[in-house]
Amino acid sequence: MNILDKIVATKKQEVAAQKKVVTIEKLEKYPGFARKCNSLKENLLKDDASGIIAEFKQKSPSKGEINFSVKVEDVTTAYNAAGASCLSVLTDFEYFGGTLANLAKAREANPDIPILRKDFIIDTYQIVEAKAFGADVILLIAACLSKEKALELAQKAKALGLEVLMEIHNAEELEIVNDFVDVVGVNNRNLKTFEVNVETSVELSKLIPAKFVKISESGLAGASEIKYLKEHGFKGFLIGETFMKTDDPGAACKKLIEELRD
């Protein structure tokens, strides 16, 4: 059992428990549920877009504790001011230290920028939850979904006005991508070994249909890598640890975006 299998097993238990605590009917009455979503896809395609999807991540299975000394509202506001195209907020607690409360705080502090709910979505309940707590985009990870389940989840997201980011790790997982997906993300991290290789994005970029906006995830540290990936058609770059491991994640984000614009 690899780390993804463990996370999904935990997530199934968490979702089953949460359904008993807060019903879908209750979630649909949350103020966030009625709001119109901001578009990640549109933001990434703007001529002046930085393409940076700046993430609030406090710990991870591969790195352990990253940064618990900062507040989500402060960091995400700074990311937004720095020129990020989108915010990403972890909501998995067990493995990443994230919470839905963090998502709600980020939303309240940043009403006009797209926010990705970064979690392991395996049930339509989580999509309703995402909308209720203020997300604009959900992440679907091809490695932990069947083709049928991915289609069901993507359709539900689109029905609620959310956009869908589908994450793949290899060519085989492209089979899971469907027409309800807005953005395809290539994760450069091998889930079995945790090794990171940016060339994974380059190789898969040749296989991703042109109708999808492409983003690269994991292991991105500097402007040179991002400029290299832009040459291969990537419009978005999800970066978390590089920013979060510093004392001032917002300043680190600002510095990178300024380097990209040089």
Give the topology, please:
Elements: H1 3-21, H2 24-27, H3 40-45, E1 52-56, E2 59-60, E3 64-65, H4 72-82, E4 86-90, H5 93-96, H6 100-109, E5 115-118, H7 124-132, E6 137-141, H8 147-159, E7 163-168, E8 183-187, H9 199-205, E9 213-217, H10 223-230, E10 236-239, H11 241-244, H12 249-260
Parallel strand pairs: 1-4, 1-10, 4-5, 5-6, 6-7, 7-8, 8-9, 9-10
Antiparallel strand pairs: 2-3
Helix pairs in contact: 4-6, 4-12, 10-12
Catalytic activity: 1-(2-carboxyphenylamino)-1-deoxy-D-ribulose 5-phosphate + H(+) = (1S,2R)-1-C-(indol-3-yl)glycerol 3-phosphate + CO2 + H2O
Domain Indole-3-glycerol phosphate synthase: 4-256
InterPro entries: Aldolase_TIM, Indole-3-glycerol_P_synth, Indole-3-glycerol_P_synth_dom, Indole-3-GlycerolPSynthase_CS, RibuloseP-bd_barrel
Please give a structural write-up:
It catalyses: 1-(2-carboxyphenylamino)-1-deoxy-D-ribulose 5-phosphate + H(+) = (1S,2R)-1-C-(indol-3-yl)glycerol 3-phosphate + CO2 + H2O. With 262 residues, the chain is an alpha/beta fold. The chain is built from 12 helices and 10 strands. It is globular and about 50 Å long. The model has no long low-confidence stretch (mean pLDDT 96).
